[in-house]
Write a structure and sequence with these properties.
six-stranded mixed sheet, mainly beta, single chain
Length: 171
């Protein structure tokens, strides 16, 4: 919030007008980016004082995308759309924010508490799991928490070869 102050104390008496200023919350129609506020005050004697302040307004959350060392793959044979990954595997969050910049990426495994991650997060070595992730920018806007379910598969496929018995005929 912005207001007119003198040495940190609100000025409420002796001011006859305030021109060209946002007093209170920056209007919601103001676009993200650089905002310049100009506060002008005129006292009862006609003395004018002007102060200019600029800041970056950022109301837009960053974007977040899950990145894995080895790609998650859908089972080509159906299996209910299960996504598989080999072990060991790790994941990171790729985030972008054009206004204030990315402050941090957060992730959690299997519904745990989202915590800041640096680099790659090791994934479990077997079984079915989920990873939740998001990004937070320097203005504390957070992307929506996304989730990806996966199964770590460490079992090699079984190969069975069927060969009919050879048959001989005497002609």
């Amino acid at each position: 919030r912005w207001g007119l102050t003198a040495n940190g104390t609100p000025v409420t008496s002796g001011v006859s007008s305030i021109l060209n200023a946002f007093i209170g919350t920056v209007p919601s129609a103001t676009a993200d980016g650089l905002v310049t506020l100009v506060l002008s005050a005129t006292d009862g004697a006609g003395n004018i004082s002007t102060v200019t302040r600029s800041f970056t307004l950022d109301r837009t959350p960053p974007t977040a995308r899950l990145v894995t060392a080895f790609p998650f793959t859908k089972n080509p044979f159906g299996a209910g759309g299960t996504t598989f990954t080999p072990a060991p595997n790790s994941a990171s969050v790729d985030a972008e924010d054009e206004t204030s910049g990315v402050d941090r990426a957060e992730a959690a495994l299997d519904g745990g508490l989202l915590t800041k991650i640096l680099g790659f997060l090791g994934l479990p070595s077997s079984g079915s799991h989920s990873i939740q992730y998001r990004a937070v920018d320097k203005a504390e806007n957070a992307s929506a928490t996304a989730s990806s379910n996966f199964t770590v598969d460490t079992t090699p496929p079984t190969i069975t070869v069927l060969v009919d018995e050879p048959k001989y005929e005497n002609v």
